[in-house]
């Protein structure tokens, strides 16, 4: 089911706030993995503000939905989401990456409230997500587990071990995304280690693959609704995204996997985000129902 | 901590160490529904298959994919289950080291690894299947408790302790049958406590600190040396490699001034290293020999033959003790100013 226009616009507003908070955090830290943070911010926004069945005042609620950020280096996007949600004090973002901060590049589940798994070493998250998914089955619980993978991360063979077993165990309570921003540290994914035909690979591993515009909240919503509708195979949502989405001088440039933000760049980025938000609102106004 | 030990000495001699583990886990699983089992196509070999047969809904065979297995176990533990994970020691400690490091130890969660075919116990399989550095890897991981039981009886106690205590555990056991140390002929009361060495044989001339199947060999050597040489050899079963019983090590240094460590593992990073660290940090010098793999891969062969070739069997220990007794080592009673 598509988002209502009202819902869509409300989510656009939240996504804009969170993109700004991610940029602010990068500025306060001096640098960060902002490119991949921006590309997955729409996924994080729609999960935390529409789909995840979680309680801000009870982060360890046993029946809560789980979320595993397998591309752990997007902590600079995830931390703002968790602070904004109410799990952690927003002031903590000003300490991001500083000595003795609770928040470093890769968020620690024992230090940052709301993090379901410490990730950072790539290729781990999907197995952990399957673990929480199978635990729901053993414990007779109906919570869901959502997992976001990076596309470059899919070079790690362990993902494919996990994929094979998610299909074998018919773990349809695990809903997986790939942030397909087509960039990794050393270059574009197709130049460093080609992933295509990417969707076919997931299909061959037994997934129902949905390819969406990962910067379109309505398309993301429709894909998640499908995954929640008791499909007969686990669902992989390949979100076609833009690295650095919303910040024009970063967009689709792999050099912005990790970058430094000075005062001047910060101002330019803020202006760009403003324009980007206006475009996004215009689209929602036009296409929303 | 010996609670749950339902194996009589007779039963223990009839079962391989891994079979005792499997049966212990089945018993634990009957009472504790949050226990789940995971295997990577080694359910039969590691004997966790017994748990799978008893509780198919709580058992997951992930195929030959150890990294995935430990990641799944981490997710399960995060959701409140108590996963027992079994594969061969070499695969657990090397193939999935990153998952154990990051997903389990870093998060300090309740995953129990019962790793079989440790040391050179799968001798004929060659070095691809010998676990000669698993203790070195596991010992260096924060939050990990590392146990190397002497026999099946101790394995049952260790598995029970792993359930009773929260946190990551790595228990390394052998393939096949171990000589039973804590059977009906064992002259003392047996009591297992994590982090507490067991004095298997009292002695004042020299101390042999051993783990795993080497403890039985050390005990045999001590009995022989008492008869043949009139030596009083203290034998410590250092079943817990981490946290190490530092007190027992230092007491042995003070009482006997001669220490030999014995392990079916590289002498680098395992029991011998752990004991050496304690002595060095205490500033206590001592005649000291580490028996084990001397920075080499082991030959192919039967386990008992390899143990003999490495000098970690009864004869090897006897020779090492005699050599150590001949070492000219200053025996000064006043150690307080030695540091």
Strand and helix layout:
The complex is a heterodimer of chains A (289) and B (339).
Chain A: H1 5-29, E1 31-32, H2 34-39, H3 41-51, E2 66-69, H4 75-85, H5 125-139, E3 145-150, H6 157-168, E4 174-180, E5 183-184, E6 187-188, H7 189-192, H8 198-204, E7 208-213, H9 217-228, E8 235-240, E9 259-260, H10 263-287
Parallel strand pairs in A: 2-3, 3-4, 4-8, 7-8
Antiparallel strand pairs in A: 1-9, 5-6
Helix pairs in contact in A: 1-3, 1-4, 1-10, 3-4, 3-9, 5-6
Chain B: H1 9-14, H2 17-31, E1 35-39, H3 43-46, H4 49-54, E2 59-61, H5 66-78, E3 82-86, H6 89-95, H7 97-106, E4 112-115, H8 134-139, E5 145-147, H9 152-164, E6 169-172, E7 198-201, E8 206-210, H10 214-229, E9 233-237, E10 240-242, H11 246-256, E11 258-266, H12 271-282, E12 287-293, H13 303-310, H14 314-325
Parallel strand pairs in B: 1-2, 1-3, 3-4, 4-6, 5-6, 8-9, 8-11, 11-12
Antiparallel strand pairs in B: 5-10, 7-9
Helix pairs in contact in B: 2-9, 5-7, 10-14, 11-12
Structure commentary:
The complex is a heterodimer of chains A (289) and B (339). Chain A has ten helices and nine strands. By secondary structure, chain A is an alpha/beta fold. Chain A has one domain: Rossmann fold. In chain A, α1 crosses α4 and α3 packs parallel to α4. Chain A starts with a helix and ends with a helix. In chain A, strands 2-3-4-8-7 form a five-stranded parallel beta sheet, sandwiched between helices. Chain B is of the alpha/beta class. Helix content of chain B is 41%, strand content 17%. Chain B contains 14 helices and twelve strands. Chain B is globular and about 60 Å long. The mean pLDDT of chain B is 94. At the A-B interface, α5 and α6 of A face α5 and α7 of B.
